[in-house]
Design brief:
Elements lengths: L1 H15 L7 E11 L2 E9 L9 E7 L5 E6 L10 E9 L6 E8 L9 E4 L3
Antiparallel strand pairs: 1-2, 2-5, 3-4, 3-6, 6-7
Length: 121
């Protein structure tokens, strides 16, 4: 019983600390740079643990789960949390009015918090 209580308390403390094992999208800003072209500024939080476990990309995704663009993150951000990276030149078809940004880490894949944002058209 003591072990179970300890495990539950540890889980609650980890969840309340603000960090989970998955990469979370915290904030997204987007600006139109052309008729169907956009630049995204995405803030991600992940408890990077070096090259073996870090947030390694984020995707811009349409409502039908089509990946419209990917921003690859080429290294861990252990000492920069949360961090913001941009991606420009993203072409999004006229019929799409909102997109979801999802982050990915090298161990768990997708699964953290996402942000859906309306496009400024």
């Amino acid at each position: 019983m003591k072990v179970l209580v300890t495990m539950v308390l540890c889980t609650v403390m980890l969840m309340s600390s603000g960090f989970t094992d998955e990469a979370d999208v915290l904030k997204v800003d987007v600006k139109a740079t052309g008729p169907d072209t956009f630049q995204f500024f995405v803030t991600v939080r992940h408890e990077d643990k070096g090259w073996d476990h870090y947030a390694n990309k984020w995707d811009v995704v349409a409502s039908d789960v089509t990946v419209l663009a990917t921003r690859t993150l080429h290294h861990p951000h252990e000492n920069e949390q949360p961090f913001t990276r941009s991606l420009g030149g993203v072409t999004i078809p006229t019929g799409i009015s909102a997109v979801t940004i999802q982050a990915h880490d090298s161990v768990h894949g997708f699964g953290g918090k996402t942000v859906t944002i309306q496009l400024p058209r």
